[in-house]
Amino acid sequence: MKKILFISFLFLNIHFGYSQCIMNCHQLLNQVIDLVEQTYPGYQTLNENSELYKLHKNNLLEQSKLYPIDSAIVLAERYVSFFDDYFLEIVPLYDQLPPSKPVKEKKNTTFVKLDDQTALLKVVYFYTYSQDLSYTQLLSIPNLADTLKQFTNLIIDLRDAQFSYGFNGYNELLSFLYTQPFQNQQYEWFLSKPLIEKYSDRSGISVLEPIISSDSEPFQYMKKHIGEYGNIENYTDTHITYNQVFPTPQKVVILINEQCKYDWEHFIYLAKQSKKVTLMGQSTYGAFDYIEPLEFMLSTGKFYIKIPVARSSRVPQYQLNGIGIQPDIYLQDSTTDWVKIAMQYLEKN
Q1: 26: which residues sit within 8 A by CB, 6+ positions away?
Q2: pLDDT 10s digits, 338-347
Q3: What CATH architecture is 110-176+246-287+322-348?
């Protein structure tokens, strides 16, 4: 099951002639398509899906000739849905804030002793950003290292895990799973003309996007290698190593499902390589082939597009977007108590 986006929008009074509205909708959709085709690494690796993509694109372009400009956001959403990429996104802009959604009760990461041998770590948050964009640790377990060492078996439940905001979020936990160097993946940016233009015009940079000064060495590299892939953010670690292999926990089950995405998928991708670890549950979301989503503004005040511009070194040989990481032991939806199944597995193996 993949994310289904429901876009609601208001039809505004149109002050143009009908033919101009038709042209504007068509042109705006074309602008979205041009940006994706020029900047999105996923477009570069369509391969056998290229003919289906052309049919999908051309069908929407024909539809755009029949609709007013207010319909462009819906057509743009349908267009990007072809790629099934969590980070390739059409984002509405509102004249006023949309109605607030009911606030869900905030869950915390918890650590529970199940018996003398086994503990359960149910992960929700590890790290989040504070208002000044510095890391703030939300893991509510004091002395995690000392706590983990006390148990032979560990169950890590990632079914409700939120973003960890990068490797620092799960580094300590990963070290307890270490049995051999983890083969890491590098990311390279696709250096497109719109990307260069975006970083030339500083007004288009979000506070959460990578800061690349127009007089910096990475920016000069980008300008010289348009149309190529480049290691802009110095992703150089092909392997992750730790100083020691902890004797405990000896066996680890990680519970996963389609709610696991991006940062936690990277954690699962690494953890799966450990001799201690068994993955149990269902496939993850499949959203970390392409990262670094950047905001690109359009010729409208109604929406903009986010496009991930960096590609994993796994791609295109080993793609996980829309597929996810598969468990070693699959659990059906009808299986109600996954933790109990994991405990039974640890006791028998």
Answers
A1: 61, 64, 65
A2: 999 999 999 9
A3: Alpha-Beta Complex (3.90)
